[in-house]
Amino acid sequence: MVLLAQHLARHRLREPQLLEAIAHFLVVQEAQLSSKVVQKLVLPFGRLNYFPREQQFMPCLERILAREAGMAPLATVNILMSLCQLRCLPFRALQFVFSPGFINHINGTPHALIVRRYLSLLDTAVELELPGYQGPRLPRKQKVPIFPQPLTTDRARRKYSHKDIVAEGLRQLLGEEKYRQDLTVPPGYCTDFLLCVSSSGAVLPVRTQDPFLPYPPRPRPQARAASQPVTQDPAQRVVLMLQERWHFCRDSRVLLGSRALRERHLGLLGYQLLPLPFEELESQRGLHQLKSYLRQKLQTLGLRWGPEGG
Predict the structure, then answer these.
(1) What angle do CA 206, 207, 210 make, to 5 degrees?
(2) Domains contained in the chain, number
(3) InterPro entries from the xrefs (predicted)?
(4) Where would I find the H helices in the chain?
């Protein structure tokens, strides 16, 4: 079952029948499974963005986490990372991994940095997606950037990526001063391309603006009308998101869990997302067509640039 789970995750195979079989195996064999095995069985569910129909899936994992959390810190956090991608974080397990005892314990281990990175992401998920959580949080001094650079798969497949040609298209269309590439925004998400846009829709030189939105995000006053600005900063931040073929489950339009998580969190932070799907990028024949495509995409958001755009 572990080999099957690893195969599905590695090759991005979102096969419901096989995933349901793994979930059922996990539930039936709960008493015999250690968290080090469970982390491998749960991995494909988060990676493939698939929540099983097995009704005992979450109760089973919560019991395993309660039983094993103190024995295998890295395995515990790996299980929570998979559940984070599925938007199913159990409060009790979060309270344990954010406790001073757990944090002090992991700081003396060889995998301390990766665990702190995962805990930082979990803390971000709590901030953005769990308003009802009242337990302990990760101390500020323990936080590290989540993904301070493009993900490993993107770096490995750079020669197959559309990033370079999109960058050249934006350079010719907007000018180098009106976008930033591979900028890491708080709390540590690397963006493909970021634009700053005025309230009138003009694309602004990035050097004249703070490209970062505040984190934690400022609360939206409920009584404020939707048409009124929610902060004193009138500039919007637009993030162009490359959606490459390998960002999806194989032969599917379902984003991988890590990609969906990044897009979800950037949206909750207040960034306006503009996806650039690989099918649309692949259909552009040459730089001239790509520039026309980017122009149309930006104009659908009401953006302006050049002499008339300010």
Answers:
(1) 75
(2) 2
(3) FAST_2 (IPR013579), FAST_kinase (IPR050870), FAST_Leu-rich (IPR010622), RAP (IPR013584)
(4) 2-10, 16-28, 35-47, 57-68, 73-85, 91-97, 100-107, 112-129, 152-156, 163-174, 257-269, 278-282, 286-300
* CATH (domain of 292): 3.40.960.10
- CA distances 273 to 237, 239, 264, Å, are 9, 5, 10
Structural domain includes residue 170: yes
Tell whether 130 and 57 lie within a shared domain.
Answer: yes
Same domain? 131 vs 10: yes
Phi, psi of 116 (to 5 degrees): -65, -35
Residue 309 above 70 pLDDT? no
Place of tokens 């073929």: 245
Q: Is the four-CA dihedral 127, 185, 179, 290 of positive or negative sign?
A: negative
Which residue is it, tokens 């799907």? 277
Q: Which domain holds residue 47?
A: 1-142
What's residue 205's pLDDT? 93
CA geometry: angle at 303 spanning 196 and 282, to 5°?
A: 95
Give the three-class secondary structure for 253. Answer: coil
87/195 same-domain check: no
pLDDT, mean of residues 264-288: 96
Cα distance between residue 264 and residue 267, in whole Å: 5
Taking CA atoms, 80 is separated from 39, 51, 123, 216, in Å, by: 9, 14, 11, 21
Q: Write the burial class of residue 228 (CB in 10 Å: 0-12 exposed, 13-18 middle, 19+ buried).
A: exposed
Task: Give pLDDT tens digits for 142-158.
Answer: 998 887 666 666 666 77
Peptide bond into 59 cis (omega under 30): no
Same domain, 113 and 190: no
One domain for residues 74 and 189: no
- Answer yes or no: do 174 and 81 share one domain: no
Q: What is the pLDDT of residues 32-77, one digit of tens each?
A: 999 999 999 999 999 999 999 999 999 999 999 999 888 889 999 9
pTM score, whole prediction: 0.90
